[in-house]
Amino acid sequence: MKKRRFTKCSVCGVSVKMDNLAEHLRRVHNKTIDGGTIRDRAKADPCEEALEKGMKLMASERFKRAISVLKTIPDECPDIDSAYTLIGISYIQLNCLEDAITYLEKAVKADPDCPAHWYNLGAAYISKGYVAKARECANKALALNPDEEVKEKAENLLNGIKELLDLELANKPDINPETYLKLEERFRRGVEFMENEDWDAAMEEFKYVTSIDKNSAKAYGNLGVIFLLKGEIEEAEKHLKKSLDIDPSYIPALRNYQLLDELKEKIKRDPGCLAELKDKLEMGHF
């Protein structure tokens, strides 16, 4: 006897393939088959629906749309940490690292006992160049007894950081990894002060860096920028030249030095023109 391939939906009467009946009932009528009996499905949770929709959008690489959908999930949702993580990962795919870090930090805060959240945050930090923070996150992930997949990823992240430190310190025999990471934190703090135009606080951070690492072309370069914006032309010239003496190929210091040379006389005549230079000068990052 030939096997029947189609049946009628008892709800709407349409002809449906036997294999597709359960899917038809779920999608069209929001019902399920339970032991041959058709029942109404439980009302879907809107948070779960948004999460599922967000994940599908991410799978199709529609990351901006995924972010918009996931941001509709309220903070009181039980799975809000998952929403934050998916938003953060979507931002990484869009190369918006600052936004990614913001949401991955929220995920960690929402569920600090999840190893995967710490690993994801560490991966975002290392993409941004925050080595010390990335290492801290990877170690945190491993301390929380992760599954094998997260454990392997966190260990790989730590191995990558070790290789990076070995490379960075190959020509700095007087600086150990712990000191290097401390200098990184001080340098980044200096950059934040520069972005907020707190020149004196920024200067203090970069002077600390150069007191330990006397071959930091980037720190000397940023000091040159600060002195220039403070109107101290001779000090600016001295520090930019010091940066280039250490590394003649360091582009930000080279461009800033050339700009200073071109505008030196104008700055002396009209110190007020320094305000116009802020957007033209290049700041160095660790």
Question: Care to give the gist of this entry?
Answer:
With 286 residues, the protein is mainly α. The protein has helices at residues 21-29, 46-59, 63-70, 80-93, 97-110, 115-128, 131-143, 148-168, 177-195, 199-212, 217-229, 233-246, 251-269; strands at residues 6-8, 15-17, 31-34, 37-40.
Task: Please supply descriptive tags for the structure shown above.
286 residues; mainly alpha; Serine Threonine Protein Phosphatase 5, Tetratricopeptide repeat; 3 domains; two-stranded antiparallel ribbon; two-stranded antiparallel sheet; 13 helices; 4 strands; 65% helix; elongated
How would you describe what is shown here?
This protein is mainly alpha-helical and 286 residues long. The chain has 13 helices and 4 strands. Helices cover 65% and strands 5% of the residues. It folds into 3 domains: 6-40; 46-168, Serine Threonine Protein Phosphatase 5, Tetratricopeptide repeat; 177-277, Tetratricopeptide repeat domain (Serine Threonine Protein Phosphatase 5, Tetratricopeptide repeat, Alpha Horseshoe). Helix 11 packs antiparallel against helix 12 (233-246). A hairpin with a 6-residue loop joins strand 1 and strand 2.
> What is the CATH homologous superfamily assignment of the largest domain?
Tetratricopeptide repeat domain
Low-confidence stretches: none
Q: What summary fits the major beta sheet?
A: 2 strands, antiparallel
Please give the count of helices.
13
Tell the overall outline.
elongated
If you compute it from the alpha carbons, what radius of gyration comes out, rounded to the nearest whole angstrom?
28 Å
Strand order across the largest sheet: 1-2
